Amino acid sequence: MRRLVTFAVGFLLVASLAVTPAAAQQAGPDCSFPVTMTDATGTEITIDERPERVTTTNPSAAQTMWEIGGREQVVGLTQYAAYLEGSSSRTNVSASFGVSVERVAGTNPDLVIAPNATTTDEVAALRQAGLAVYHLREPTDIDGIREATTTIGRLTGNCEGAAEANAWMSANVEAVRNVSAGVSDRPEVLYPLGSGYVAANDTFIHVLLGISGADNAASEYSGYPQLNDEVLLQLDPEVLVLTERTADYTSQEPYASTTAGQQNATSRLRVRDLNQAAPRSVVNTVHNASRQLYPDRYDESIYVQRSAVENVTYNGTSSTDTASAGSGPGFTAVGAMVAALVGSLALRRRR
Fold it and tell me: Which CATH class is domain 7-172+316-350?
């Protein structure tokens, strides 16, 4: 078995040397300017040249800019992105609620990246101030996060960095999926948000919990519904997902009377990872959740380092393609083989 695995690794290394140069020539993303893309509001946005000054109105976009190599372009971000290294030297554009149009305009941005959490009214106000604003679609799954990352990379001239960030995220997602592969008694979990609100189906949080090996007890609902105590008791989660910003619901009704409350069973995750739809958050969340849910099956060695997926190339799109046309780019031959290797090694470690 060891010889077989060694041969497989050797073959992939040789294959990568043979395929990567050709892939770089034939399938490298087109990052030229001008670029025209259509955003979530149906507005066509044209960027004439690579933006030197980018302001983000949501921490997920700021985090993405850091991950794709665009941090030096960022001149403004919100208070919730303060954890990013070097963020203190950028302008805080937060208001008491949402963002301040005056502060955003004051950064003199070439481009404003507004994720879905930014309201359409705020986007309209920013545009009325004469700013170029791209409003991102709401990501409800990993493909949506990949698309947002690719879009931000294309708009800011960081296509290669976006491809690498997506490849790194995808490799870790597949590695974590393998931890609970074949498990029939997956734990039912619930993420309470307070006042009866929970994270249900059709959200990227639901998807992250599923990748980690959990079943969402609120999967029959959609979005972030507010449920009454009777319904929450009927859901009877086995594990409660808690963050540093949520109360310890295991001691509060109705959760105290659920299986999770009675057994004090929790999975504690960092709120900025769980709530921000961006590559680093995905990687951190799925690993941390899987580590806690499957302590006997999770192996720290399954973590895929960013350096392991550098120089990955994806099929590119032309500078006039819309965001919808460029969604969900696929792996190159090397990317597919790397994903297969990650899966095979993860399975081997559990045997």
Answer: alpha beta
Identical fold between 7-172+316-350 and 186-296 = yes
pLDDT at 299 over 70: yes
Q: Distance of CA 297 to CAs 70, 242, 291, Å?
A: 36, 22, 8
| pTM of full prediction above 0.90 | no
Taking residues 317-321, what's their average pLDDT?
34
Q: Classify strands 111-114 and 54-56 as parallel, antiparallel or unpaired.
A: parallel
In the CATH scheme, what is the homologous superfamily, with its name and number, of domain 186-296? Nitrogenase molybdenum iron protein domain (3.40.50.1980)
Segments making up each domain of the chain, as ranges: 7-172+316-350, 186-296
Task: Compute the Cα dihedral for 219, 221, 224, 228 and give only its sign.
Answer: negative
Tell me how far apart the alpha carbons of residues 269 and 335 are, in angstroms, rounded to a whole number: 29
C-alpha dihedral sign at 75, 80, 86, 88:
positive
In this structure, are residues 327 and 143 in contact, taking their beta carbons and an 8 Å threshold? yes
- pLDDT single digits (tens) 32-78: 999 999 999 999 999 999 999 999 999 999 999 999 999 999 999 99
